[in-house]
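Review form for a predicted model. The reviewer records the input and the model, then writes brief findings.
Reviewer: anonymous (R2)
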Amino acid sequence: MALALTGLFVVTAPAGAAGRAVTLPGAGGVTLGGQFYEATGRPAPAVVLVHMRSRTRADWHDIAQQLEGAGITVLAIDLRGHGTSGGSAASQAEMVPDLRAAVQWLSTRPAVRADAIGVVGASLGANLALLAAADQPSIRAVAAVSPSLDYRGLRVGPEVMKKLAGRGV
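Model under review:
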């Protein structure tokens, strides 16, 4: 997916495409805010976009539009304690099950190919993407922009990468 994404950034998004605000359940009853960009071709592959610490889903808007224009359905989420999501940003370990819940929500959309879902994350979001995918085989590909071996206790070591073997990373 990472190589495919590289070529997609030159695609022009449809005029006026902005996605629509959605809410979805996170871990422990927390409500997560998101922006849903639905591709016109159906069923479509899909991706969840995960922002950096102290940022929001709005950071992904331009990329989400480009992906949508290229026929990929997109869910950009606000992590707990960020943007329109509930919960505390201090609960970083709980963000991993939140991300898994977002993938599950996306996979139940009727126009999404549940067998073709990827996750893209930056910084904190990169670690979360790798950790969520390690134990959720339905995540078929991960693009990690600037991950860390240990992002404030969210460790991504060889054991995590072994679990991702055979999937696009």
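Findings: The chain has five helices and eight strands.
Further findings: The first strand starts at residue 20 and ends at 25.
Recommendation: see findings above.
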